[in-house]
Write a structure and sequence with these properties.
single chain; 297 residues; Rossmann fold; four-stranded parallel sheet; 10 strands; elongated; Vit_B12_bind_prot
Length: 297
C-alpha cells in the first residue's frame, strides 16, 4: 500500500488525533514545594495525607475521587468513612500502596519527609501542599481541581473564599489594633509567628500578633512570655470543637489585660488551624471576638 494512499492518510490522521487527545488529557500544576506535578489524565484515585488536604479536595469537587485519608480527617462528615492510611505524623505506606492511588496529596511540614519521598520512589505521583497565605488556600483549590478534573468546582470554591476574605479585609481595614496571643497548643505552650496563616487571620481582623517576630511557624513559649507581652486578647483553639478549656488557666493571672476585660476567646480549631476554606468562618468569628475586645476598652 503506497504511503500516500487515502487509507494511509486516514490512519495517519487518526493516529495524530489520538496523540492530540492523549496530550490534551495530561494535566500539570506547580505545588508548594516548587515541583511540577503532572498526570497523564485527571486523577481518579486520590489519597490525602492530612485532614486539611482532605477538606481541600472535597471543596475542590474531588471528594468522590478520594479513596483514603489519615486520622482526624473528619470534615465534611462523609470524610469519616474513608479508609485510613495512618496519621499525618506516621503514614501507613502499605495501606497507601494497597489503595493504588494515581495521586497523593501530602503536607510539606507535617508529613514525614522520608516517607513521602519513599512513596515517590515507589512510583506514586505526589502533590506537596502547604498554603502560607489566604491566597495560597484559593490557589490550592484551583490546582487540586486541575489535577482531579474538577476545574469548575475548584474555581467556584476559590472565588467564594477570595471574595469572603476581601470583604473582611475591607470591613476591618481601619479598625483600631488589638494585641493578640493565639494559643495553638497547651502543653507544651505554643503559639504562631507572623509567617503562620493564623497570623494573617489576626491581621485581617485588625489584630496584632504579640509573638509575630519569633522564629519558627509554631514556636514554644513560656507563661512568663505571655505575661510580659500582656495581650489585650487571648484566643485559643483547644482539644475539641466545643472545648474552650485551654482558656481557664489564664484566669488566675488577674493582672493580664485580657483577663481583666474578659477577652478570653475560643475559636473551634478546625476553622483556623487547617488551611482550608473553613478559615473564612474562623476568621469571621475571630473578627467578632476582636470587635468585642474593642468595645470593652
Amino acid at each position: 500500500m503506497p504511503p500516500t494512499s487515502p487509507i494511509s492518510r486516514l490512519l495517519l490522521a487518526l493516529s495524530l488525533a489520538l496523540l492530540a487527545t492523549a496530550a490534551s488529557a495530561r494535566v500539570c500544576v506547580d505545588d508548594d514545594a516548587d515541583r511540577r506535578v503532572c498526570l497523564e489524565q485527571p486523577a481518579r484515585r486520590i489519597v490525602a495525607l492530612s485532614p486539611g488536604a482532605t477538606e481541600l479536595l472535597y471543596d475542590a469537587g474531588a471528594g468522590e475521587r478520594l479513596v483514603g485519608a489519615v486520622s482526624f480527617s473528619d470534615f465534611p462528615p462523609e470524610a469519616k468513612a474513608l479508609p485510613r492510611v495512618g496519621s499525618y505524623k506516621r503514614l501507613d505506606l502499605e495501606a497507601i500502596l494497597a489503595l493504588q492511588p494515581d495521586l497523593v496529596v501530602a503536607w510539606v511540614s507535617g508529613n514525614p519527609a522520608a516517607q513521602v519521598e519513599r512513596l515517590e520512589n515507589l512510583g506514586l505521583t505526589v502533590y506537596r501542599g502547604e498554603p502560607r497565605r489566604f491566597a495560597g488556600v484559593a490557589d490550592t483549590l484551583e490546582r487540586l481541581a486541575v489535577l482531579a478534573g474538577t476545574k469548575q468546582a475548584g474555581a467556584a470554591a476559590a472565588a467564594r473564599f477570595r471574595d469572603g476574605i476581601a470583604e473582611l479585609r475591607q470591613r476591618f481595614a481601619d479598625a483600631d489594633p488589638v494585641t493578640v496571643f493565639y494559643e495553638v497548643w497547651e502543653e507544651p505552650l505554643m503559639t504562631v509567628n507572623g509567617e503562620h496563616l493564623i497570623s494573617e487571620a489576626i491581621r485581617t481582623c485588625g489584630g496584632v500578633n504579640v509573638f509575630a517576630d519569633l522564629p519558627g511557624l509554631a514556636p514554644r513559649i513560656g507563661t512568663e512570655a505571655v505575661i510580659a507581652a500582656d495581650p489585650e486578647a487571648i484566643v485559643a483553639g483547644g482539644m475539641g470543637e466545643n472545648n474552650p478549656a485551654w482558656l481557664t488557666p489564664w484566669k488566675r493571672f488577674r493582672a493580664l489585660t485580657a483577663v481583666q476585660r474578659d477577652n478570653l476567646f475560643f475559636v473551634p480549631p478546625s476553622t483556623l488551624q487547617r488551611p482550608t476554606p473553613q478559615m473564612l468562618a474562623g476568621t469571621r468569628l475571630l473578627c467578632d471576638h476582636l470587635e468585642r475586645a474593642r468595645a470593652r476598652r
